[in-house]
Amino acid sequence: MTEYAPTLRDARIDVAAVFGALGRKLPRIIVVTLLILGATFLVLMMMPRLYESSASILVEPRSNVYVRAANEQAPAALVGDASVVSSQIELIKSRDTLLGVIDRLDLRSNPEFNGSQSGSSPLGVVMQLIGRGSSPVSVEERVLNTLYDRMTVIQQRDSRIISILVRTTDPQLSAEIANAVADAHVARRAQLSLSDTAEASGWLNQEIQRLRVAVRDAEARVAQYRVENDLFVVGANNTSLLDQQLSTVAAQITSAQERKNAAASRAAVIRGLLERGQPIESVADVRNSTVIQQLSQEKARLQGQLAQLSATLLSGHPTVRALNAQIGELDTRINQEGYRVAAALEAESQVEADLEASLQADMSRFKQSASTATQDTVTLDSLQREAKAQRDLLEAYLARYSEASSRVDSNSALPDVRVVTEAAPSVTPAFPKTTLILAGVGIVAFAIQAGGVIFGELMSGRALRPVEFLPAAAERPEPAVQAAPPVPAAEQPTAAFPELVAIEPEPDAELAQEPEPSTEAPQAGFTMPANANVRANGEPVRSASESARMLLQELADRRAQRDSARAAVEISAAVAPAPVTKPQRTLTGAVRFADLSADLVLGKTHLLLLADHGTGEPGRSLADSLVSDALAKGLSVVLVDAGSGRIGSAPGISDLSTGEAGFGDVVQKASGQNFAEVAWGQGDQIDRASTKPATLVEALGDIYEVVLVLTGRVGRSSSLPAFADLGGRVVLVTRDTDDADAAEETRRKLLDAGLSRVEISTLEDAVAA
Predict the structure, then answer these.
(1) Among the listed residues 232, 222, 86, 260, the one whose alpha carbon sits nearest the alpha carbon of residue 160
(2) Residues 561, 563, 565, CA angle at the centre, nearest 5°?
(3) Which end of the chain is more exposed for a tag (fewer CB within 10 A), N or C?
(4) Is the distance from CB of 77 to CB of 92 less than 8 angstroms?
């Protein structure tokens, strides 16, 4: 998140001064750029012109129905295109393929390839003068190396197309070399395919003759054994009937054992729970009992009545004792029913045991009958496996031999590559691209010089101008602290808690007669100076960072004063009798300041929504004390003012809701501290239809450990509905316990409006802490 720190931006860049300096140096920049372009043009003119031609090869399985064998299937698509195409590229660049191209085009006698032309070129002369000439090698190696350098073989993106690009000084020669390399690769792949097929067909013919005799003998032995041992009758899945009967009985025995063991185990579990005095309602068999379900419902009803009466009656009351006796009687009846369920399960286990014994007897009888047949079946299976293996191998060899012989006899083996695009002579040189190179050099030269001028102006300070901040207090007076005007019906929030805006607490007659408290509360805390334009004494407002520093200093002073007060109280308590304190009334849902601060420090509470009850902004004072404690424990804290209505000079949450400020502009972070603040801003009210305030608070929750949101006084002007969906802890803050009835009534209305948890806290407790 961008930090908002306007006091650190004490200088700005003078764009006019920067462009002025750039304009004064512009003639020199243009002259230097033209000189560089001229030198580059001379170098480009000395370089030889290279023309590029390209031929394309498609890698795919090839087949023709007219030259394919009768039982041959069409080849499938290539698997692993990347690896197959990469292998084809390496074959194209192989030495054997390129030697055929060299012999076909007689490149050994070409001066461009045999090295005789390099010594006469300007670049070659310069290389020889500095002692970097080429080492003496054979003509064949020199031609190969030159062809490697001038040829590029690449795969087109997301395809099986291979492009062969060749660059030479002669455009016609470039096209001839590219076409010759493509044709040589296609011819080599066809020759390799034919030679492999011919060798395979000869070997397959020999194996087929041997396997025919072996298969005939194996099948004859199988037929003879079937006749001798009377093994013709077979059931489903090519198995004998005895084997099927044994399999069925074995499956029934296993199922009976499982049912017997399951019933015995469930009965043992139920009896064990009953003997140990533990509840048995968690067992499935017990829960399925209709009697136990009725008894459990009656027990739950009696326990509910007992819990209600225990809150008002003692344990010895006759009604309480009667309820306990009834609950005990129900427990006894539930246990008796559990014993009956266990007995039923044990009877079920005994029935399954008898069935298992009967099936075991059948299994023994079938085993005696199938012993002889099983021994004969083992030998028959062995003979059948041998015959099947020989037959499968023969059929596979026959299919392969048919394919191979059809290809060799008809010379119809097609290579897996084909030329799809032949190279044509190029009319424009591929290198050097004079126009593009000059444009690039010119742009880079101009940009480097302009950047150097701008950098020099910034480093020298001539392009920097100080920023003068005008005090905002003289521009507009501080508005009176008042509730925001009611929101029209069209702007009412559409969140999950629209009833919160209708809650308006009854004003206290005594509080209504009191004047508005000053911005610095002497007892309950202090206020943030960044939220107002003018203080009570007329002092102008300070910047965001200065206000944050003053806040932290005032927090430290306030904590020191509080520690001194505690020490003084402890000393006075040691030498004087304890004063008589006025008994305080206990509020429903009340939370002590010490507990609230401990929850923030321990991480139990992360987001805290403080709503005011009554005048004087008690939530602000309570928030100041909580911020002080959290910062003292080393936590990171952010305070969001979403309810004061004080218009300030810095942008805040009201400007964010209307879109006049961004998220990074409204967060004012203290330099070097773990504290940040979101002020009310420059707007009159928060846009209730905007979701930006809730999004800001949710984002701050991911960054800071403690998030405090001031939602203002409960009522139609409160911003509490905008943050109710965030799941924060809602605390209704009052000045003291004198207005306890009104606070409890407001808390009840908030709960009825849909909030899950609302607590009450008083400033008297915070001051005492």
Answers:
(1) 86
(2) 70
(3) N
(4) no
Residue with tokens 């469930």: 266
In angstroms, the Cα distances linking 381 to 13, 223, 638 are: 95, 12, 83
Same domain, 281 and 405: yes
Characterize the bridge pairing of strands 637-641 and 675-678.
Answer: parallel
Give the DSSP letter of residue 678: E
Q: Which CATH number goes with the domain that contains 611?
A: 3.40.50.300
pTM over 0.70: no
Tokens 């690449």 belong to which residue?
154
Q: Are residues 674 and 599 in the same domain?
A: yes
Look at the chain and report how many structural domains it folds into: 4
Residue 622 CA to residue 612 CA, distance in Å, equals 10
Kindly give, in sequence order, each residue whose CB lies less than 8 Å from that of residue 238, ignoring residues fewer than 6 positions away: none
* Of 238, 244, 241, nearest in space to 384 by CA: 238
Instruction: Tell me, yes or no, whether 28 and 90 share the same domain.
Output: no
Whether residues 89 and 25 share a domain: the answer is no
Helix (H) or strand (E) holding 268: helix 241-275
Rounded CA gap, 713 and 76, in Å?
A: 77
Nearest to 684 by CA among 523, 503, 476: 476
Q: Are the beta carbons of 648 and 533 closer than 8 angstroms?
A: yes
Q: Which structural domain, as residue segments, surrounds residue 152?
A: 50-198+416-431
708: part of which helix (H) or strand (E)?
strand 706-713
> Running DSSP on this structure, what letter comes out for residue 676?
E
Position 374 in a domain: yes
178 and 326 belong to one structural domain: no
Q: Can you tell me whether residue 331 is helix, strand or coil?
A: helix
Residues 752 and 606 in one domain: yes
Tell me, yes or no, whether 466 lies in a domain: yes
Quickly list H helices, 429-481: 434-460
Does 347 lie in the same domain as 313?
yes
Report pLDDT for 295: 77
Angstrom distance (rounded) from CA 404 to CA 69: 9
In the numeric block, the tokens 């100080």 are attached to: 466
Share of the chain above pLDDT 90, in %: 12
Q: Are residues 736 and 602 in the same domain?
A: yes
The answer to whether residue 63 sits within a structural domain is yes
Which amino acid makes up residue 118?
A: S
Q: What does the alpha-carbon distance between residue 300 and residue 315 come to, in Å, rounded to a whole number?
A: 19
**Hey, which residues does 758 pair with through a beta bridge?**
730
Kindly state the tokens that stand for 384. Answer: 């059948």
Q: Quick one: average pLDDT of 366-390?
A: 78
